[in-house]
Amino acid sequence: MSLRVRLNLFITLLFISLFACSSFYIISNARETVGHEVESTAHLALKLIQIAFSSDSIEKNEKKQLKLLRALSELDQTRHLYIDIQNPDSKLIPDKEFNVLKNTNAPEWFVRLVQPPPTEIRQWFYSPMVAPIGVIIRADPSDEIDETWNEVRGVLILLFVFIILANLLVYITIGKYLSPIDRILEALSGIEKGDYKELPHFRLPELDRISQQFNHMARVLLESKAKNRLLTQRSLEIQEEERRHLSQELHDELGQTIAAIKAVAVAISNNDVPDKEHVDSSVKTIVQYSDHIYQVAKNMMHRLRPSVLDELGLIKALQNMIDEWNSRQDDIFCHFSFSDIPSNLSESLKISLFRIIQESLTNALKHSRANRVSISMNKIFVDRKENIGLTIEDDGIGLDENKTMSGLGLPGMKERVEMNNGTFELTSIHGKGIKIEIVVPVNI
Asked: Which structural domain range is residue 348 located in?
C-alpha cells in the first residue's frame, strides 16, 4: 500500500470519526431539545386550563364550564397535544385516537434516536356546580421531531458533503506533493545502474532537502568513482612499472653477472694447464659476482616486502626505514616516537601502517619543502576498544585548499586506512604545513 493511500485512508478515518462524533452530538442535542419542548408545552397547557377553571365566572356558572369543556375538546389541531376530558362516571368527550408519531416525516431510525419518554399529565378539577372533571394531556412530539429532522438533515448533509470534498482535496493535494517521490526512487535506481543524474528542486521543503542531500551524495559518489578509477589505473601503471623495473634489473644486474660468472668458468675450463694463481683470481671474481647477485636479490626482495617487518616486527622495521631515510637527507629530518604498540597486529594492518608512513616520507621529500617531519604512533582507546593512533606532521608549505586531496599519494593512504576500518583526517593551512591524524582499530 503506497504512502499516498495510507495517508488518505488515515485522513478518511479521521473524517469518519469527526462525522460520527458530530452526528452523535447533534442527535443528542436534538433529543434533549425535543423532550424539553414537548414537556414544556404540556405543562403550559395544563397551567392555562387551571387558570381558566379557577376563574370565578366559570367556577360558579355551569354553562360556562360546559362551554369551556367543549372548547377544550375542539383542540384537535393543538400542536404537540392530545387533550381528553372525562368525569368519574363516564367520558364527557370521547377519547380521540392518540396517533403519536404516526404522521411524522422523519425516518424511523431518527425517530427512535430522538424520541423522548412518553409524557402524560392527568388533572381533576372540582366544582360545586358540576361533577368532578378530569383532564388528560398527552404530548405528541411528531411536529417537533419533523422540525428537528429538517434542521439536522441539512447540517448532516452539509457535513457529509464537506467531508467528501475535503477528502478528495486532500487526496489530490497529497498526490501532487508526493509525486516527486517517484522521481527520487527513479534516481536511486539510476544510481544503482551507474547513472548519477541529479534531482531538481521540489516545492515541498522536506522533499527539497532530500533532493539536495541526494544531489550531494550523487556528486560525492561520482567523485569517488573517478578517484577509484584513477587509483586503479595508477595501481596498474605502478605494477607494470615495477615489473618493467624488475625485468630490467634482472637483465642488467643478474643477467650480466651470471654471464660474467659463466665466462670466468669457461675460461678456467679452457686452460689446459691450470695455473693456481689464475684459478684463485677466477674464484675470487666468481665470489664477488655471487655477492653482487645476492645483494641485488636482497634489494629486490626488500622493495617487494621488507623482510625486517617479518623478522623484527613493525616498530623495528619503521625505525630502520626512518634511520635510512634520515641518513640520505641533509635538509630534512624525521623524528619518530611510539608508545605501547601491541605486538599482535594483523599482517594487513602492519603492512598498511608501514606503507602509509613510507608514502608520507616520500610526499614530504617531494612536495612539502619542510625542515622537520614528526611521526608519532600510540595505542589509544575509542569506545573502550584498542586502536592505533598515528599522527604525521611537517612544517612545510602545506596544501592549497583546492588541491587538498588531489594527486595519488594522499588518496592511496586514505584508501589503506579505510580498508582497515579506520578514520583519516587531514588538516592543512597553506604555508604552515600539514597534519594527518589516523585512527585504526587493532582488531577488525
From this structure: 313-441
Q: 145 vs 24, 31, 82, 100, CA distance in Å?
A: 16, 9, 16, 11
Identify whether residues 240 and 149 lie together within a single domain: no
Verify that 170 and 233 share a domain, yes or no.
Answer: no
Q: 3-state SS string over 30-61? A: HHHHHHHHHHHHHHHHHHHHHHHHCCHHHHCC
Do 359 and 413 contact (CB within 8 A), yes or no? Answer: yes
Closest CA to 118 of 27, 31, 39, 33: 39
Cell numbers representing residue 242 in the block: 615495477
Count Cβ neighbours within 10 Å for each residue of 407-433 and write b for 16 or more, e otherwise: ebbbbbbbbbbeebebebebebeeeeb
- Cα dist. 163→5, 225, 226 in Å? 17, 53, 55
- Whether residues 26 and 165 fall in one domain: yes
Quote the CA–CA distance of 359 and 376 in Å, as a whole number: 15
Judge contact between 31 and 149, C-beta under 8 A: no
| Cut 0.90: pTM above it | no
Answer whether residue 245 is part of any domain. Answer: yes
Confidence of residue 444 (pLDDT cuts 50, 70, 90): low
| 434 Cα distance to chain centroid | 37
Span 417-431, pLDDT tens digits: 988 889 999 988 777
- Helix boundaries (H) for 305-332: 307-311, 314-328
Q: How far apart are the first and last CA of the chain?
A: 41
